[in-house]
Structures are given as structure tokens and as C-alpha cells.
Amino acid sequence: MAADASSIADELARYAKTSSRNRFQVANEIFDKVLSELADTTFTFSSKDNVVYVDGMLYYWSAMCAYDAGQYENALSWNSQAEKCFDELDSLQLYSDCLFQSSSIYLCLSDFSEAAEYSEKSLSIDRELNDSTRLSSSLNNTAFVWVYAGQPEVGERYILEALQIERTLHRPHSLAIRLGVASEILVQTGKLDQALEFAKEALSIEEQHGDLRRIPVRRSQLATALFANHRYEEARDEALEAADSLKVCGNLVSLQITYRLLADIEQKLGNEKYAIDYLNRSLELCKQTENTYQEAQTLQKLAKYIVKTDPAQSAAYWEQYVNLKEKMFDDKMSNQMQAFDAKYKMSRQLAQLEMQERLISYHRIMLIVCVVIIIGCVLLVALLMRQVRQRGEYNKMLQQTNEAKDELLRVANDEKLQAESARQKILEVVSHFDRISQRDDVELSQREVQIVQLLCKGLLTKEVAEQLNISIRTVETHKNHIYRKLGISNTVELLRYAERKGLVEATR
Fold first, then answer.
1. Half-sphere exposure of 104 toward its Cβ, with a 13 Å CA cutoff?
2. Which residue from 182, 180, 226, 188 is spatially nearest to 204, judged by alpha carbons?
3. CA distance 103 to 110
4. Residue 457 sits in a domain of what CATH number?
5. How far is CA 80 from CA 97, 102, 119, 189, 338, in A?
6. Most exposed among 69, 147, 336, 363, judged by the fewest C-beta atoms under 10 Å?
7. Domain tally for the chain?
8. Pair 7, 34: CB distance under 8 Å
9. For the chain, which ranges sit under pLDDT 70?
């Protein structure tokens, strides 16, 4: 027995309030407690599963449970949630299954246009998946929906394609189903001989494989084909045998259809009393299974059958028929409004998400710009500080050099100093001058070293440029850069630096 909608709703509400870490455990508990009797597969979720997948499976099976219990509004709501999850996951198979389930629900709600739309969407995806087994089933279901929608010629095209595919798959039971549906549709499109042929083949396949649940359904379909071919006595025999077996199997949906068929047969044979009795049985089953569409069709037949014998009751049946039609229309409008409301809410949520994504993108761009500006400022400050430090060192060296030169001039002009002492003093000043110009911390590039060596050999700037195959301006630029690095101002000082560094042989 499937769980009722209230118990499923309570479990789903509990699941929605559960933290993400514990959702997997709660989902497993709900399957074991509520959905295990319906699901043909044991589901066990773990933290490795995508939480959106778990949400989708929980809503999908909850919808199926509600559908099985005839709680179609709840089934439609939960299946819609499952569709969103599987669409987000981009899982085509699961999304197609959800679409087909929506089609089945709308079919039970007698909203055939919505049922056909969802069935066509599911079929389109199954064509894309290129799975023959899925495609055969999807074509069969879509054909069935179009028949209910009052367009059997569309259904015929789909079921014949499904039958062609199924004959290549070698699945007897599935082939029998396709043949049975094809027989019913061809009866409506007026291809009676082919309909009878398909019905006989379907029943033969089921009898060969001994499926006791399916044999009465195929027998009922054969009775329909026989009735269409005006073979009423044969049709009644097959239908009676089918009805007895369907009651044993508990297949109430097929039984109510068979009762309506028996009513048509008895009416053709002139047995009005039996015809009315079978219609009443069918009507009772329609109410029991809450099949509004079939109930309306049965009421219409009853009203027509007894209009001469019991006009008052006929009018009552017509009134019930009209009320059911109005209810079906109101339900359809209500479903459309709910669907519109859901689509509106979804579009609004998508707009909000899009706006949030734009804001996040804008903030991300602004953050990157700010980081770039900060890095640029830091580099600029570091460069300025380096230039200030280098300028300070250069000015200090220049000051020391000038002081040494002044001291040298003072010694040279001091007439009181003895020659030897003056010589000693000059050597001290020169030694001090050498220490000032000694820049061991400076590193020259390979090109700068080449230029230093050539200049120290006595080559002119033009000659250096020709030997290195570069322009005179480039040599001048390198030369000025070398002088700034070493803190010198002439070739003599450059020669001293080159001798000390071993770049040229000493000239002394």
C-alpha cells in the first residue's frame, strides 16, 4: 500500500529542514519508511552523491508514490521539483523519466494537451539519447496520449514506429504490448483488418509465454477488434473471459474498459438490460479508481442508452456528465494557473540569481583592479626609493671625491711641505681616492663588460660601435650607464676599476 500524501509531505518537510551533512541519512530513512514498497530498486545514498541528485530522486519517487495512490495534485507538485533537480544536473535520462511521469499525471487529470506536450518533450530527449529500448517505450506512451487527446491518426504514426523498433529487440512481452496498443489505435483510424491481425498476434505471444496478468488485457483488445469488425458473438466471448480474469488479477482499469466494451456488444445484440448493467459496473469502477475522464464517458453512454426507457434518470446522468466536464475544465485551469505561477516564481528567481552573478562579477573585477593598482603603487614606491638611495650614494661619493681633490690641490700648493712628505701625503690622498672609486658591489652586464674592455684598450666610441656591430648612440648609452653605476666621470677612473676587477691587464 502506497503512503498517503500527508505522510510523504511530513517526511519531505523534515528532509528540507535537515542540514546538508545529514540529508543523505534522512533520505535513506524516508525511502525505507515510506517509499520502499513502490520503488523497484533499493536506493542507498552516501555523502559521495550529489545532493541535487538525492533531492531529485526523493521528489521523483514521492511523486510516483502519490500517483500510485491517486493523489495527482501532490504527484504533480513533487514531480515538478524532481524535474528542476534533474534539469540542473543535466541528466537527460532522469529528466526524460520525470517528463513522462508528468504526462501520465496530466493524463489522469484529463488534461490531454499538457499530457501530450510533456510526452513529446520526453520523446524528443529519448530520440537524442538514441536508446532503442527507451525510444520504443516513449513512442508507445506518446501514441497512447494522442489517442486520449482525440487524435488517433497521430498516435498511429508513433505506435507503428514503436512496433517497427520493437520487432528488432526480441522482447516478446514488450512486442505484445506494442501490438495491443497498435490494434486499439487502428480500430479508431478505421484499419480494422490490420487491427484484428495485431490483436491476434499479441494474444498469441502472451499465451506462448504464459503471462497470466497480461493475457486478459490482450483478450480484451482482441474483443475490441472483433467488435469493430462486427463479429459481436466472438467479441462477447472474448470480453467475458477477459473480464473474469481481470477481476481475479485486480486490474480495475482494464476491467472498467472491458465492461464498457461488453455494454456496447450487448447493445448491438439488442440486450439493453445487460448493456446498462455493464455500464453501471464500469461507472462504479471509474469512481473507485477516480478516473474522471472514463467516468464522464460512461455517464454519457448511460444517458444515451436509457433516454427512451427512463428519461428522468437519463437527464440526471447528463447533469452529472456536465458537472464532471466543468470540474475537469476547472481542474485544468487550476493546473495551468499553478504552472504559470511556478514558472513566474522560477523566472523571478533566475533573474535574481543573474543579478547576483553580475554583482559578484563586478566586485571581482573591481577587486582585481584594486590589487593591480596597489601592486603598481608598491613597485613605483620601491623604484623611487631605490633611485633616492642610489642618488644619495652618488652624491656622497661625489662629495668625497671633491674633498680628496681639494686635499690634493692643497698639498700641491703648500710650499712649506718637504718633497718627501709631500709625496707621502699625495699617495695617501690618491689611495683615499682609489677607495672612494672602488665599487665592489656593482655588477656589470656582459655587454657592459665588453664595452669597458674595449674602451680600456684605447678604442674610440665609433670603433667600439663598429666592433660590436651596434650604433654609436647605444655605446654612449652603455658608457653613461657604466659611469653612473661606478660613480666615475672619466676613462682614467674606468681603467683603474677595470684593472682592479681583472677585466684588463695592469698598465703599471
1. 18
2. 180
3. 10
4. 1.10.10.10
5. 12, 8, 14, 34, 11
6. 363
7. 2
8. yes
9. 1-6, 34-43, 327-354, 394, 397-398, 400-402, 404-442, 505-508
Domain that holds residue 29: 1-90
Residue type, 281: R
* CA–CA separation, 508 and 506 (whole Å): 6
Task: Look at residue 311 and tell me if it is in a domain.
Answer: no
> Is residue 472 domain-resident?
yes
Whether 480 is in a domain gets the answer: yes
pLDDT at site 391: 75
Residue 507's pLDDT is what?
Answer: 44
> Could you count the other beta carbons within 10 Å of the beta carbon of residue 33?
11
Q: Which of 344, 350, 336, 260 is nearest to 305 (CA)?
A: 260
* pLDDT for the residue 181: 93
What pLDDT score does 107 carry?
Answer: 85
Last-in-domain residue among 90, 115, 133: 90
Alpha carbon distance 396, 418 (integer Å)? 32
Q: Domain boundary residue among 90, 112, 147? A: 90
* Amino acid identity, position 146: W
Identity of the amino acid at 81:
Q
Task: Give the position of cell 512496433.
Answer: 163
Question: Does any domain span residue 186?
Answer: no
Provide the pLDDT for residue 240: 95
Helix axes 215-228, 252-268, angle to 10 degrees: 30
Report how far apart the first and last C-alpha atoms of the chain are (Å, whole number). Answer: 114
Phi-psi region of 291 (alpha: psi -120 to 50; beta: other; left: phi over 0): beta
pLDDT of 407: 67
Which among 293, 213, 309 has a CA at the least distance from the CA of 256?
Answer: 293
What's the rounded Cα separation, in Å, for the pair 15 and 130? 36
Place of cell 552523491: 49
- Between 72-89 and 5-17, two packed helices, what is the crossing angle to 10 degrees? 30
